[in-house]
């Protein structure tokens, strides 16, 4: 394991794009690259100057302050949903800590989180995270518009977006002690529809290709990694690849990262539109409910290098 060849993911520039101009040639060429990359690698690098370097610096500055809070404070970030609250102090991944905020583009939601962390409030934190999340959300919608257009599923897009929830996860990976493993986060595929990742300039993300090789993703400064999760794999009836990925901490500085996860709303049935199923593409999954799947997923224990959703509702297991 771990051939770790330096590798450049396909890059898509979203800076000049907006959904209103989806008839333009630049939209079309960006869409072609994005869709191909999601099919081949399950991810691509996105540049998006609507999130300026200044805003990025502010986000990571605020996150430094957040992770510097006492553990008892950070542990006030609880959730009735698995994996949505504080995660950390885990024996087999000691470098990792994370916290989560649902619907992070809603100021009130971020404020609720902020007031748990700082009893006197912290308007700067709230506003920075909300502004940033709203822009990430725009990027998420552009990517989904491209995928739905590219797969001729435009007529389903609106309902699909309506049936989606968003969760922002903020993460910290500390530097490993000499006696510790440098594995920051073990290999997994996201269960989300799409995940948009962003880091503080410290590398560490690795992706497993369809051939099983691990590649180090050197993300350019100011760029994002857009990645398909298993829910998109199901929705596209296998067309989009959900890559296994992990974080390896070879850096000598703390790595901070952020992920905007889009997730199917609990109580909605996820299944591919009928256009995705034909003789050449037999149905690969039973329809599923994300909430019921998560219950199964947590009960059965998260297993390294295993597709949870495929295990749960795959028809060809
Ligand atoms: O920190 C990263 O870049 C990756 C995080 C990740 O894969 C996850 O939270 O699912
Ligand atoms: Fe992930």
TrEMBL record:
Annotated keywords: Iron, Metal-binding, Oxidoreductase
An example molecular function term from Gene Ontology annotations: metal ion binding
Domain of life: Eukaryota
Listed PROSITE patterns: FE2OG_OXY
InterPro entries for the chain: DIOX_N, IPNS-like_FE2OG_OXY, IPNS-like_sf, Iron_ascorbate_oxido_reductase, Oxoglu/Fe-dep_dioxygenase_dom
UniProt keyword Iron, yes or no: yes
Pfam families: 2OG-FeII_Oxy (PF03171), DIOX_N (PF14226)
Statement: the UniProt record of this protein carries the keyword Iron: yes
Domain Fe2OG dioxygenase: residue ranges: 164-264
SUPFAM superfamilies with a match to the protein in the record: Clavaminate synthase-like
Similarity comment: Belongs to the iron/ascorbate-dependent oxidoreductase family.
Role summary: Probable 2-oxoglutarate-dependent dioxygenase that may be involved in glucosinolates biosynthesis. May play a role in the production of aliphatic glucosinolates.
The protein's name: Fe2OG dioxygenase domain-containing protein
Source species of the chain: Lactuca virosa
């Amino acid at each position: 394991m771990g051939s770790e060849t330096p590798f450049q993911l396909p890059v898509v520039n979203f800076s000049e794009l907006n959904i209103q101009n989806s008839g333009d040639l630049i939209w079309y060429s960006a869409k072609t690259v994005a869709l191909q990359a999601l099919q081949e690698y399950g991810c691509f690098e996105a540049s998006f100057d609507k999130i300026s370097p200044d805003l990025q610096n502010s986000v990571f500055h605020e996150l430094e302050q957040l992770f510097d809070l006492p553990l008892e404070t950070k542990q006030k970030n609880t959730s009735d949903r698995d994996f949505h609250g504080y995660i950390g102090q885990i024996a087999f991944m000691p470098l990792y800590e994370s916290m989560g905020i649902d619907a992070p583009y809603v100021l009130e939601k971020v404020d609720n989180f902020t007031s748990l962390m700082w009893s006197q409030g912290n308007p700067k934190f709230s506003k920075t995270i909300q502004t940033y999340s709203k822009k990430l959300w725009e990027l998420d919608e552009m990517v989904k518009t491209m995928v739905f257009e590219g797969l001729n599923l435009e007529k389903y897009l609106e309902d699909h977006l309506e049936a989606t929830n968003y969760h922002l996860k903020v993460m910290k990976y500390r530097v490993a002690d000499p006696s510790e493993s440098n594995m920051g986060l073990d290999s997994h595929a996201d269960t989300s529809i799409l995940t948009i990742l962003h880091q503080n300039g410290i590398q560490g993300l690795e992706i497993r290709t369809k051939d099983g090789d691990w590649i180090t993703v050197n993300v350019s400064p100011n760029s994002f990694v857009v990645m398909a999760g298993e829910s998109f794999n199901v929705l596209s009836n296998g067309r989009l690849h959900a890559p296994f990925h992990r974080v390896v901490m070879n850096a000598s500085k703390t790595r901070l990262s952020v992920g905007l996860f889009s997730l199917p709303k609990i109580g909605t049935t996820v299944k591919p539109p009928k256009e995705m199923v034909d003789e050449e593409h037999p149905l690969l999954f039973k329809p599923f409910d994300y909430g019921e799947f998560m219950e199964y997923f947590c009960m059965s224990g998260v297993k390294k290098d295993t597709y949870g959703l495929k295990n749960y509702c795959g028809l060809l297991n």
